[in-house]
Amino acid sequence: MHSLQTLTKSFSAWVIFCCCCCLPLLLTSPLPPKGPGLASTSHHACRLRKINFQQPYIRNRTYTLAKMVQVSDQDTDNRFIGQQLYVNVRENNRCYMMKRIVEIVVKDVLLTEVKDRYPYVGEVAQFLASLTSELSRCKFSGQKEHMEKNLEEMKSKMKQLGENGKTKAIGELDLLFDYIENACTDTPKKGVNKKKN
Ligand SMILES: *[C@@H]1O[C@H](CO)[C@@H](O)[C@H](O)[C@H]1NC(C)=O
């Protein structure tokens, strides 16, 4: 009886010891160090590595697909990918903006029935989706309304053009490729940015 009580007591003590000391230790030790590391990841959340755009294979596929489809796009009045997207959107938010546009193009264009109509669509869609998933933690900073308005304009134009809108968006994949590269990598191509100022 007496020894059982001691056993129970020492067992409870052990449980309490475990909860108070071991558990917190267990929970905290595997976490990566916080502080400067965390700050720099949020700073780089809207950044893609240049290497993503330096793979000749996927660049060639994207450009080839775009060029192939451009011949069947007679409408020169409308343009989805262009400087109008950036009207009233600060430079540091442009990568976020391009992420949203890539998401729209992948979902509303590339993953629809057009994927059986042209070659390389699947590969290009996969590549673009990999970029947006790398940018998953990229957030907009500040007032979103101008950006949302520009996005809405693009979406409604695309809807209004119907099938031709999809064709146009595919024909602009080369532009999209360049725009996301310029907006999301650290060393923008010379010429493109310089002329703007
Ligand atoms: C893609 O690669 C093929 C074969 O390597 C080449 O003939 C073609 O010109 C390239 N296309 C573009 C748009 O770079």
Automatic annotation (TrEMBL):
Short name of one Pfam family: IL22
InterPro entries: 4_helix_cytokine-like_core, IL-22
Annotated SUPFAM superfamilies: 4-helical cytokines
Organism name: Opisthocomus hoazin
Lineage: Eukaryota, Metazoa, Chordata, Craniata, Vertebrata
Protein's name according to its UniProt entry: Interleukin-22
Signal peptide extent: 1-28
Keywords for this protein: Signal
GO CC terms of this entry: extracellular region
Top-rank taxon: Eukaryota
